Amino acid sequence: MKVAIITGSGGLIGAEAARFFSKRGFYIVGIDNNMRAEFFGEEASTSWSVDQLKSTLLNYKHYSADIRDIATMRLIFEQYGRDVALVVHTAAQPSHDWAARAPLTDFGVNAVGTLNLLECTRQYAPEAVFIFTSTNKVYGDRPNTLALRELEERWEIAEGHEYEGGITETMSIDNCTHSVFGASKVAADVMVQEYGRYFKMKTAVFRGGCLTGPGHSGAELHGFLAYLMKCCVSGRTYRIYGYKGKQVRDNIHSYDLIQAFYEFYKRPRSGEVYNIGGGRYSNCSMREAISLCESISGKRMDTLYVDENRIGDHIWWISGLQKFESHYPDWRITYDVPHILEEVYTANVEHHEPQRVAIPA
C-alpha cells in the first residue's frame, strides 16, 4: 500500500492534493482539525470540504488531530510506517493579523507543528518525500525595497531589473520585518531545508505567492481572490489596505500547484527551495482584480479604502519560477487570473445566486 499523509486536508491545497493523489492509487491519510474556523470564523470552516473528501474518496482516512500534538502524530505515522511514500504539509495559521494577536498559537502551529511532522517522517518513513507549503512572506518586507514604478492601475518593477521576470530564491530573508506570521513560517521553512540537507531526506519548500481556486474558504484575513469574489457576489464591502489599491500579487490555481508537487514527487531532491506562484503568467493588482470581478459578475463592487497597509505586506510580488522550471521542464502554468476568477465566481453563485445586472457605461 502506498500512503500519502496530507495535513490541512480540508483546505484549498490539501483537498486538491487528496483528490489528485487518490486518483493515482495512494491511500490518503488526511489530518485536519478545522482550526481555520477558529482562526477566521465559521465562514472559513473547512468541515464541508472534509465531508466531501470522506464521501467521494473510497481510499481516504480522516484524523481530526492537531499537528502540535506530537504523541498523536507519532501514533498516526507509526500506524502506516514505511508505507508512507509522501507527506504534503499544508496545515498552517496563514494570517499576519491573526498571528500578531496570538503569537504562541501561531508559532505552535506553523513552526512546532512542522517540526513534529518532520521528526515523525524521519522516524517512521525516512524514504518518504516531504513537501511543505511555505510562503513568500519569509522574505518579509524586503520586496518593498525594490525599485518600483507606479502605473495607472498597478505598481511594477523597474524595467531591466534582475527581478523583472519575478523574484527568485536569491533574495535574502534576513534583516527585514517579517510579521509574526512570516517569522513562524521562516522557522518551519528553514527546518524543512535542514532535515533535507542534514538528514538527507527528500524535502522541498514551496514558497507560494497567492494560492487560490474555487475550493478556497476565503476570509478577510486570508484568501485574496476567493474572498474578493465572495464580497462581489454577496454585496459585502471589501476593504483595500494601502498602496492605493495598486499592490500586485501573482496567483496560482491549486491545480497547477499540485502538478508542481507531483513533478517533485516523481524526481525528488533534498532540501530544495522553490518560489512558486502565477509568475508572469498569472498576476494582477488589487484594482485589476476588482475590475475583473465586476466584469465577470456584472455587479459593481462596494469597496472601502483604508490608507494604511498591513505590516510586512508586499507592494509588488511576482514569483520567479525559473529555478523550478529548470529542474522540472515538463511543468507549466495552465490557469491565468481571469480563468481562476471565472471558476471562483461559478463556485460562489451556487451559494448566493446573485442577479446579473449590466454595469452602466
Would you kindly provide a written description of the structure presented here, covering whatever features stand out?
This protein has 361 residues and is of the alpha/beta class. It has one domain (3-352): NAD(P)-binding Rossmann-like Domain (Rossmann fold). The chain is 40% helix and 19% strand. It has helices at 12-23, 35-40, 47-56, 70-80, 96-101, 103-124, 179-198, 224-234, 254-266, 286-297, 322-327, 337-352, and strands spanning 3-7, 27-31, 60-63, 84-89, 129-135, 148-150, 155-157, 202-208, 210-212, 238-241, 248-253, 272-276, 283-285, 303-306, 316-317. The strands form 4 sheets. A 7-stranded parallel β-sheet has the order 3-2-1-4-5-8-12, with helices on both faces. Strands 9, 11, 13 and 15 form a 4-stranded mixed β-sheet that branches. Strand 1 (3-7), helix 1 and strand 2 (27-31) form a beta-alpha-beta unit. Helix 1 (12-23) crosses helix 9 and helix 10 crosses helix 12. The model is unreliable at 353-361 (pLDDT under 50).
In short:
The chain is α/β, with parallel strands linked by helices and 361 residues long. The protein is built from twelve helices and 15 strands.
